[in-house]
Amino acid sequence: MIEVRRSTLLADARRSSGQLGTIRVLKDVRAHPARYAGAVAIALLTVPIAKLVLTGVVGRFLLFGFAGWAIEAVHAGKPRYSAVLGGNRTKIPLLPVYGVGGVLVTAMAPALVAAMPVGRALVYGGALSGLEWGACRADRAMGHESWDYDGECVDAEHFVAWGVLGRIVEHAAL
After folding, report:
1. 60-110 tens-digit pLDDT
2. Domains of the chain: which residue ranges?
3. Can you list the alpha helix ranges (DSSP code H) found in 21-95?
4. Interatomic CA distance for residues 174 and 165, integer angstroms
5. How many Cα atoms sit within 13 Å of 111 on the Cβ side?
C-alpha cells in the first residue's frame, strides 16, 4: 500500500513538474552536462570578481552583462550579441538583460537575507523573469526577436534558471 501511494505521488509530481518544464530542464542538463557546467562555472567566477573589483552599479552592470554573454555563448555553443547594442554588426560582448539582472539581484539580496533560500530563489526567479519579459517585449517592439521560448518571452524552465542564477549572484552583495 505504501509503495502504491509513493508511486502515485511520484507520478503526480512528475506530471506537475512536466507541466512546469522542470523534467525537460533536468533531461537537458543530463544530456549536455558540459554546457551547463561551463555556464555555472562562469557565473560562480563572476561573484568574487564583483566583490573584489567592481562595487559600483555601472561596474556591476558591465561585469554581469559580460558574464551573461559568456554564459549564453557557452550554453548555446556560439556567441550571441544584443540587438540593442547593434547585434552581430558591432559584436559587443554584453547582454544588457544580464547586466540589469545582476544589479537588481545585488540590490535585492540584502533585504532578502533573512528569507529561506528557496524563498529567495522564487523571488529572484520572479523578478528576473519579469525583467526578461519586459526586455523581450521591448526587443520585439524594436523589430527584433533576440530570444524566443516557443513563441513566448518567458517560460517555467527559465524561471528556474533565473532563480538559481539569482542565488549565485546574491553572494556578490552579501
Report:
1. 898 889 888 888 888 888 888 888 888 778 888 889 999 999 999 999 999
2. 29-172
3. 22-31, 33-52, 57-76
4. 15
5. 7
pLDDT tens-digit series, residues 113-146: 999 999 999 999 999 999 999 999 998 898 888 8
d(CA 90, CA 134): 23
- DSSP state, 61? H
Closest CA to 71 of 103, 98, 101, 105: 98
CA 166 to chain centre: 7
Cell of 69: 554573454
C-alpha cell, 6:
509513493
pLDDT score of 121: 95
